[in-house]
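Chapter review: from sequence to fold.
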Amino acid sequence: MNKNLSPWFQASFLTCLSLLIDYPVTAQSISSDGTLPTPTEVTPTATGVEINGGTTRGENLFHSFKDFSVLSGSEAFFNNAPDVVNILNRVTGGNISSIDGLLRANGSANLFLINPAGIILGENTSLNIGGSFYGSTADSILFPDGVEFSATNTQAEPLLTIKAPIGLSFRNNPSDIVGKDIGTTSLGSFAPGVEQNLALVGGDISLKNTTIGLAGGKITIGGLTSEGIVGINNDGSLNFPQDVLLANITLTDALLFLETLNKENNVGNIEIKGNNISLNNSVIASVNSLENGGDAGNIVIDTNFLSLANNSFIGSATFGEGNTGSVIIQDAEKVILDFSIIRTFTEENGIGNSGDIVIKADEFALTGDSLLDSSTFGQGDAGNINIEVGDIELDFATINSQVGQNAVGNGGDINISTTGSFLLTGDSFLSTRTFGLGSAGNVNIETADSLALDSSGNFTGSLSIFSFVRENARGDAGDINIQAGSLALTDGAQINASTFGEGNAGSIKINASGTITVDGEGSDGFSSGIFSNVRSTGVGNAGGIDIATSNLTLTNGGQINAGTFGEGSAGNINLDVNDAVTLSNNGEIFGNVGSGALGEGGTVNINAGSLSIADEASSIRTSTFGLGSAGNVILNVDETINISGGNIFSNVEAGGVGDGGNVTINAGSLYLTDGGQIRTSVLQDGGEIPGGRGNAGNVLINVDGDVILSGVNQDGFSSGIVSFLGTGTIGSAGDISISANSLTLENSGRINSSTFGEGNAGNISLQVADSLTVTDSSQITSAVVGFERGNGGDIDITANSLSLTNGGAINAFVFEGGEGNGGSIEINALDIDISGVDTEGLPSGLFANTQPEAEGDAGSIQVTASDFRIADGATVTTDSQGLGDGGNLLIQAEILMAQ
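The token string follows.
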């Protein structure tokens, strides 16, 4: 699929302009019916017929014909007086009028031709008149005061009037107007005078291989299926009745266009009114092609069903100085584009704003590489795209508004409102973007039911909904605002607001009353996701991501990410989920400062009913790889947080310079199993990449109920809550603070704050209203590890009861080679039970030790309890095997029992 916007239609427009001169014709079949007070006179000439006589009333000249056909090679010349304004012609004989030659009149008179039997326009049809042309299969022309010039009631002498016509009256089953090969065999064109109007009004209207082009003026094409009146306004425009079913309009290999004449006069509108309107390889265009031209006109289509197929085009453009028109499609039941385009744009040398695209329909579908576009490539703003529909589907199609590479101006907004559903599939995308000097437009989507984005096509790197500042552009990306019943992104579909240039990325706001699902990767490996980023070439800040929904699921690589990889800060991620947030199979929520970036990371803030992270590849995280601090992670969960193998962390990565973010959790209960971890860290060097420089964030956990840390993953990593300073790093590990009703570490669960680098380990503070249990080789540890300088953190525990069994231990260590003091352990509990060893014979206990060759003092152990029991090989010890002193050991208990 070609994702670039092609200028193919520019050539079409310029070709159209060459078709505006007349050409010779050959024969005729015209006769007067003699019914007027002054009858029409038809005189043969060398080139056809000359029409004289007729009855004149004021500025009106009336003619009445039995037959009126202009055959190929012939002309019908209306030899009217110069002061005639309207030439009003009726055909009464009941035969179809076949026009395959030239219609000519003097001066600037308007030419009306009505034939209830039907009108056929042939390949040699052309006009040489100074006024407007109205061709119709109406039964009569209406005037004020009830006066009617009828082609079907010729028995009575007609009441003719000096007043201007006000309408066309149709009886049941109006006949068709057919145009075939008009203006295609030579350089002729079916067009009235400059700045005049052309109207074809009948039953069904079919134009094939037809060119209708005007310099100025307006074009109106429409029809009725039954009795009704089409009004004629003072400016020559038409009013179609609201209570009569419109006829069908078919354009095949046809071209309708309006062109500006000069800057003093704007082009009128192209108006097409029909029940079913079908374009097949056809063009409807309004264009300003002059350097000092006026504004191009609107294209207004009023229909129940509109179909564009086989490279059809509806649009307006400016190549000179002046605004383009808008494209307005209204009151439709269904609009379908298949391999076709609707577009308004300001070309590269144009000066002026492009018009809006407005579509109102019950159903709207774009398929087969179709495009809906409003853009500027010159000087001027792009128009908005406004869509109000019941349901909308894009299948391998595009809706786009952009500022081109050398353009100066702002992009237009894309506004889509549906009362039903919205589906984007097959590599379809919806975008606003700037390549030039100006900001991209916003994307606003409101759908009552589902919004489904599926990128299962073959295009590499597909993005479903996005707003970008491209590289070398200057301006801000637009915001993306979505309200939906539900939202699903699958197979690599993305919502993305980012900057690659000089300007800020837009914000993303999503409100879904039901479920949001982000699932899977595309065939190219791109993840489904919601993104706001400053890319590596970008200079500006990323926007925030705000999501409100009932349930949120990220699975199979689905992501939510706000980051900076360039020069500027990342945005925040704010999630407000009434029920469950679920991450599985590499589902991720993260904010990061990328390698080489300069800026601050954003906060990840989640409010939810429950949270589940179901495997070790899934995570909620913030990190810095560049120059700037990582953002905080804040989780407020009413019920349970269940982390089974997954991770919640904030890191200063290798090469990063800045502080890590805090991880703050408020929940009803917290379960970490199968290697699940909560972690803040400064990571060690990675080969040529130096270790991180900065402080790890704190871990702050407040749980109303139970906290359980249990088990290891398949690689042997323990479930745990950890903060550490890695090898070759400079900074401090963060503090760990946990408040809970009960806290259980089992099956090698861990709470650990350690330093392997140059800096201190953090403190551990545990406030447990009921029981604290550490069992089955689980540990609570503060340690100084390695050959850098730093002190261990203190461990402070307050609980109703403390149980250390089967190798469960609380440790404050300085390991071999460590240079720093160990932390102290202080415990306050009513009941303390320490007993047993683990399966490898390692004892349960309290340990404050320094190992051989460690430089520093061991920490102290202070225990205050009502009942203190130690048994079955358990140990409480503080000693130094290194170069420093051992710590103090103080146990205060009303009952002290050792067994």
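Two observations follow directly from the output. The mean pLDDT is 91. The longest helix spans residues 8-17.
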